[in-house]
Amino acid sequence: MALNKYMHPRNIYKTPPDFSKLAKTYKEFSDVAKVDITGKVSIDFKDPHALRVLTKSLLKSDFNLDVNIPEDRLVPTLPLRLNYILWIEDLLSVFNKNNTVWGLDIGTGACAIYPLLAAVKNKWYMIGTETDNESLEKATDNIKRNNLQHMITLKKNLTTSIFECVFLDNNQQMFDFCMCNPPFYTNIQELLESRSPARPEPKNGFTGSPHELITEGGELQFCRKIIEESKIYKKNILIFTTMVGHKYNLKELVLDLKAEGIEHTTTEFCQGRVTRWGLAWTYEDFKLSELVVAKHKSRKKNVPITISLPELPSEKNNITDYLEKMKILLLDLKIIFKIISKRKNEVNLSIIAHKNTWSNQRRKRRLLKQSLESQTKQPKLDSENHLTTEELNPSQLLSKEETNYSENKDIREEQEIIVQGVMKLYIKENHPNIEMEYLNGSAGKEGLHQIIQYIKNNWK
Fold first, then answer.
1. What is the per-residue DSSP string for 7-50?
2. Could you list the residue range(s) of the whole structural domain that residue 162 is in?
């Protein structure tokens, strides 16, 4: 489902760009454009070169920016970047920032897209940091070719700190905000497996270098580092912000900020079939969450499902034993799980089910029992495979037709996600509780309800 209607209300790309006009204006765009029999002009969005040309043409057409986008670097999607800039405008309005604005872009990239947009659109002064030499070189060239050296400064970050390089020469430097589009993934495998097969294929082709997409610990650890360092530089930066690519990471970061009592707010960045999230926090005495009111109708939020579970035997009433019990149940259901965080009385996990293993459990147990009873009436030695009843695998007790159906069903289902969600296991009033939130999957929220019911029925 296209999410354009959920873009920021001031985003000019809520109305799709006129490709016919772009083709007439820019020869490079005309070369990659296609015209169908009705005269409609389009491009192949899965072609990285076509995406690169489209972005360059839009930057020139809408912002009069001449930007060189290297072939081996990320092609920035303008609607998404513009959403972020517009949200920062909203945040600054809370603090009545109408005078000169200074912003810090962490990891500015080869295009320096955020500083360029901020400078030409809002006349903000920007400093961008970068660790990669080639990206820094390309970003410097893009700033020079647009004659914006007086508004944008770039700094090479040679430290392991996120902010330190900015304040080495001037620890009195003041910023109104910082922004960051962090690497989302921990490694190549996580990058390749990041998209749910249950979701529609991405409309756009894949672009970006490992340097731009991967970092040790993934975006969760990177953003946590920003939060930790923000405590050091809270007198230098008014509003700290970052983009977040995974919803379960956003939940964890919000929990971190709540635990520290830090005022914060969040938002959604929607474009095409892509959703990202924005997280902002401040150490100033402002109720950010109350003052920053959404100026557009938000999508319906997922309401977590919460249930209380019975206690285990008295010697096992702690979060570690509850977690071990939950692991057993999830393994029984063949649900893939990953521990996101663990605190004193709380564990957060991401879960993915590739097969529906929880429906009709009573029927399956009844069939198995009947099959076992039937086998016990036969001789212990099976004339065909020479296995005794005790050695038989339960799957061998199914009828041939049901076994074949099961195998074929496995082949079909292993390619899709039935349920994906986030689970919080916690102790409240000496009782174990679970809170689960549905993210996506072909079984919908009903599938999540069924999993919870299975856990409840089998907890003891």
1. S-TT-GGGSPP-HHHHHHH-HHHHHH-EE-TT--EE--TT-HHH
2. 4-11+76-291
